[in-house]
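Listing S7. Sequence submitted for prediction.
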Amino acid sequence: MKHLVKIMLVLLLVFLSVPAWAENENRQTDGDYVLQKTAFEVTYGNPAAPVVLTEYSSFTCPHCKNFHSQIIDKIMASYIDTGKVFYVFRYFPLNTQALKASMLVHCLPDIEQKRLFVATLFKTQSEWAFEDTEQQFMEKIEAVAKANNIDPSHFADCAADGNLADQLLKARAQAGNKAHIRSTPTVFINKERYVDNRQLEPFIAALDKALLKAGYAARTEREAAREQQ
């Protein structure tokens, strides 16, 4: 219980620090930092892809859920699975439930299980993300895991790992400072922050532009369709 209170206080302090960042409009994002590998991320696609798409996300964030259903799910086959784009998903928990969910994903034994659970948590967000007590949260998230063929037997030990929670919070604070994150989802295409992350076509256009800049002969879905007519 003491550690849970500590976590909540740390999250509150980090949240309260955001306006201070927002006041400094001249502050520059450390693009090199965004492209560095971190200990707390789930990756998809080819690491050698010409474009890197990085997302800082909170599992309890409704906008993050929409970003995954409206953007990520729709570019996975054509951009990520084809080796054009390397997608990096990073935890940026905004509350205790999101922190615990991030820990549970991190504790899974292999990358495919992590990817499955990331997708599952967003699809089932309303079923587990807004429980008032830790017991209710754990019961709901374990049920969600079981229903999607994810073994929750280690969840209790993982969620109680205070050292892991501290490490993840430190990584979150560093990302907030280095990458100048004010909200979730925060998205970068290579080193550049991408702001319009709610509409598919402009997002695809931005990916194509980055691919062309990298020397990749990118074609939009619209152009490909025209060629087939």
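Caption to Listing S7: primary sequence and predicted structure tokens for the chain studied. The chain has eleven helices and five strands. The chain has one domain: 2-228.
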